[in-house]
Amino acid sequence: MKKAISLMLALIVLVLPIMSLAETTDKVTLYYYGWTDEQSYMQLLIDKFMAENQDIEIVSSFINHSDHNDKTVVMVSGNADNLDLISCDSQATVMNLVTLDGLLPLKSYIDAANVDMSAFGPIINETIVNDDFYGVPYRSTLYSLYYNKDLFDKKGIAYPEKITWEEYLDLARQLTYEEDGTQYWGAFLADWLGCPLSVYAKNSNLLDDDISAIVDWVEIWNTGVNVDKSHMSLEQQTAESIDWLKFFCLGTTGMLINGEWTISMLKDYENQGIEIPNWDVTYLPGYDKETDPVSPGGLSTFITVGKNTKHPEECFRFVQYMGSEAAAVELAAQGVLPAYSSEAVMASFADAAGVPGAGTLLSTVINLEVPPVEGYSEVQSAYQEEMKLYLTNQQTLDDFKKNFVDRREEVLSYYQ
């Protein structure tokens, strides 16, 4: 009998750790899915929310950004019932999950809670789909020019401020050299960039019938990687599995064009004791110096709710928190540019960035990068694939133009 009781107790001990917190308390357990680039500040916000909402436990899962969207599509397609909270990296991603009937409409919850959506600016109206909101934004995005001050000083070159694309390419040429066996690059454009950065200054995008602005951008990139060789080629980036930020932190790259997330990631590196360059940031280059600097961007990252969640009310409480000023101030303090705009949020962001050029992010005109059009993410993928073929000398510029237009038409026709 004693042996039987001992065995039973042993089994209970083994089973207890497997039992979830929700099974041992009255807490509701929600499952959140995000990506590792956001983990540091998202986990901070999740922890703060749970501290203020003792009846909710959020179990978070972070995977590589490149795998995140595919995983959520698979889970949505499989009608997973533990897909409660999902971060989406763009309006196109939200649209894709809406098309798959995978997201919970939120307008009725927003109206019932009297959430003031005007704090996100008039651009919030561009995120309405089928007269409803399927996500609440928590991050804004825009692109800027980051640069290594030490490399400019070494060459006796003035720091860039408000420059043209032509001046950008010229600076890249001046900053490209080899010394003691080390290659120094004038600038770096990551091979995963799927946004034609310069076209938005011409009020264009990937849907424009006139693709001349798109061609201009592709030629800017081609000049850097294939003509001047002032930028690392796409082939080398692939062959060496280059991580764009780690590469910039080596201190051998003069300029880096990337999104506002660069600031929070540099801060995170610094907090980890990883050496970072003596950096600053300024406006994305443009076509002239008279007009206000323009960047693609907008409300970039959304918190959404899976349609099959068993706890929609509790999920919305977290959504409401993520869209609040309190959460925005916390994000800004991490060097993240929030979607929610207020004086307190902007002051927190400028202080956190800690570099003189941080104000340029707050005075840049932002044109909507991803319009709420079904199939836009597929158009973007087609553009990126055809552009890479051109930049790696696998097709001509004329081939790029024809193939992109043909593939775009095929995608848009499908969704009509």
What does this protein look like?
The chain is of the alpha/beta class and 416 residues long. The chain is 45% helix and 17% strand. The protein has 18 helices and ten strands. It has helices at 2-15, 21-24, 39-52, 65-77, 91-99, 107-112, 149-155, 165-174, 212-227, 234-239, 244-249, 261-271, 312-322, 325-333, 343-353, 359-362, 376-391, 397-415, and strands at 28-35, 56-63, 85-88, 136-148, 177-179, 182-188, 253-259, 279-283, 294-305, 365-368. Strands 1, 2, 3, 4, 5, 6, 7, 8, 9 and 10 form a ten-stranded mixed sheet that branches. Helix 14 (325-333) packs parallel to helix 15 (343-353). The longest helix is centred in the C-terminal third of the chain and has 19 residues, at 397-415.
Summarize the structure.
By secondary structure, the protein is α/β, with parallel strands linked by helices.
Relevant terms:
416 residues, alpha/beta
Rg: 23 Å
Biggest sheet architecture: 10 strands, mixed
Give the integer mean of the pLDDT values.
91
In quaternary terms, these chains amount to single chain
Helix content: 40-55%
Query: Are there runs of 5+ residues with pLDDT below 50, and where?
Result: 1-24
Q: How much of the sequence is in beta strands? A: 15-25%
Structural class: alpha/beta
SS element count, helices = 18
- Record field, number of beta strands: 10
Indicate the topology.
Layout: H1 2-15, H2 21-24, E1 28-35, H3 39-52, E2 56-63, H4 65-77, E3 85-88, H5 91-99, H6 107-112, E4 136-148, H7 149-155, H8 165-174, E5 177-179, E6 182-188, H9 212-227, H10 234-239, H11 244-249, E7 253-259, H12 261-271, E8 279-283, E9 294-305, H13 312-322, H14 325-333, H15 343-353, H16 359-362, E10 365-368, H17 376-391, H18 397-415
Parallel strand pairs: 1-2, 1-3, 6-7, 9-10
Antiparallel strand pairs: 3-9, 4-7, 4-8, 4-9, 5-6
Helix pairs in contact: 14-15, 17-18
